[in-house]
């Protein structure tokens, strides 16, 4: 399989460089890129030649919205090898997320791991620690393992909801991590979708290794596929960039019933007002917000 190597050169103040790298990787991931590596001047990304769309990538990168940051890129043919190989071999260290689990009104710890790097004798957990929930993610790209602030905030937000018997819609499901967490926290069914075929497949794969595949449906497509999904949802979750969220909010709202919860992340604190205003126009009331390193996570409720 042939790949392009795309060298993203980022000009940014030092304090914004890592944020800029994260945004570029997230936006490029939505454009079909499969894996990334940081460089001294930005980040390199790898994408199948058949999936690469230079115009789409250029348009996506114009949505970074970081002051004083500019991004350019050059494209070359990549060495013929599996560009996921290093990531898949190295994996990632366990990620620990804690919060009060509303289903049982007790503190709960979620440990996200790659199946190989487990907490050694649980030494990475707080001591004494409450019971922990294990989620194994066999990722085919770095984003979607819990390393990013937005994923961690979303998992923590799911802990704060009563999910027992609830039906959950996972929009832009990626590795399936959020839907899998919802099922392990008591949800009865998750329907996820992603525009990238490798993400939809990876979500199914991760549902299998977490033994929740009987209750996890992974679809290929964008928000328009919701017209083909039957029934309404109690909880809708979406960790996607701001522009896609603004565009897809009406589609999310169409699958919510009175009392349904909407969790959104993937954007910066300066984007909160614009998203909250659009949500309010759709009858969604902002109830909770979290922030970490200038990233945000919002919780809305559809009230009568």
Task: List the defining traits of the structure above.
304 residues, alpha/beta, Alpha-Beta Plaits, Rossmann fold, seven-stranded mixed β-sheet, four-stranded antiparallel β-sheet, 8 helices
Description of the structure:
The chain has 304 residues and is α/β, with parallel strands linked by helices. The protein folds into two domains: 81 residues, Alpha-Beta Plaits (2-Layer Sandwich); 215 residues, Rossmann fold (3-Layer(aba) Sandwich), CATH 3.40.50.150. It contains eight helices and 14 strands. The chain has a seven-stranded mixed sheet with strand order 10-9-8-11-12-14-13, sandwiched between helices. A four-stranded antiparallel sheet has the order 2-3-1-4, covered by helices on one side. 43% of the residues are buried. The mean pLDDT is 84.
């Amino acid at each position: 399989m042939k790949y392009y190597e795309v060298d993203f050169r980022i000009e940014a103040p030092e304090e914004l460089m890592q944020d800029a790298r994260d945004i570029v990787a997230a936006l490029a991931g939505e454009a079909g890129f499969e894996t990334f590596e940081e460089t001294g001047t930005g980040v390199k990304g790898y994408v199948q030649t058949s999936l690469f769309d230079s115009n789409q990538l250029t348009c996506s990168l114009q949505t970074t919205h970081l002051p004083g940051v500019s991004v350019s890129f050059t494209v070359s043919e990549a060495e013929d090898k599996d560009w996921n190989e290093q990531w898949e071999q190295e994996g990632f260290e366990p990620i620990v997320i804690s919060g009060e689990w509303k289903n049982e009104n007790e503190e709960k710890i979620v440990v996200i791991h790659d199946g190989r790097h487990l907490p050694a004798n649980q030494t990475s957990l707080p001591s004494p620690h409450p019971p922990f929930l294990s989620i194994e993610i066999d990722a085919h790209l770095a984003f979607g393992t819990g390393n990013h602030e937005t994923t961690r905030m979303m998992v923590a937000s799911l802990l704060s909801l009563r999910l027992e018997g609830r039906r959950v819609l996972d929009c832009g499901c990626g590795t399936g991590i959020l839907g899998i967490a919802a099922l392990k926290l008591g949800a009865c069914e998750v329907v996820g979708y992603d525009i990238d075929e490798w993400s939809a497949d990876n979500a199914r794969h991760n549902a299998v290794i977490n033994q929740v595949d009987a209750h996890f449906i992974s679809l290929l497509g964008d928000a328009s596929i919701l017209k083909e999904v039957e029934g309404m949802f109690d909880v809708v979750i979406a960790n996607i960039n701001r522009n896609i969220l603004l565009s897809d909010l009406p589609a999310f709202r169409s699958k919510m019933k009175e009392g349904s919860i909407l969790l959104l992340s993937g954007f910066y604190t300066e984007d909160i007002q614009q998203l909250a205003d659009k949500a309010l126009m759709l009858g969604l009331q902002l109830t909770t917000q979290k922030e970490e390193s200038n990233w945000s996570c919002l919780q809305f409720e559809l009230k009568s």
